[in-house]
Target: ABC transporter ATP-binding protein
Amino acid sequence: MALLEIEGLHVEVEGKEILKGIDLVIEPGEVHAIMGPNGSGKSTLSYVLSGREGYEVTAGSIRFDGHDLLEMEADERAVAGIFLAFQYPVELPGVSGMTFLKEAVNARRKAAGEGDIDAMAFLKLVRAKAKGLGITDEMLKRAVNVGFSGGEKKRNEILHMAVLEPKLCVLDETDSGLDIDALKVVSDGVNALRDPARSMLVITHYQRLLNHIEPDKVHVLARGRIRRTGGKELALELEQKGYADFVEAA
Model:
């Protein structure tokens, strides 16, 4: 059974149709990349999957792990195993990063019928995951993303992903604003999470991220629809030629 099945998805934002019939199937363990020009609907797709308000599905269906995703609230989707890494991670002043992450872990455990995680076991788990991402104890003590650089915010999101171990990781232009060193650290963190039971949807504008996170399939999204699907060679072609042909054809 496919982990994610999207059929004929149409989505409006403030009365304007953004997605105009998306069809996409992601099997367990697959990494799919979606590329496309600005305004093509890439981020809209990620927000619809995560359950963000303001995005109205007017037609089509989404099934996740055998369930009707559109019937689930945003928190239910997160507990079920969907994780969205934002293009611009938000700051939460006054909310301890460790407290925030522990609450998320316990929400997942509660849904699985398990008790809260032991405090020492949680600290050991987070420190082990943080070490490989270059996240210090001092960073762990801060409020969520407050005072972090762009690269630190992205590394912090990958830490959350590593600790929560979701079934579907949606990375919305997570390479945005990263220098080469930060991009490698983030990519290594993502690659460490690749698993036969875990799928990833990598949304990016540029091919450079796919040098580090090698996808099984690449899709071109333009004018609200997937216009072409191929392997990693398609990403290289887009880097050379750009999106003009797809925009004009659409």
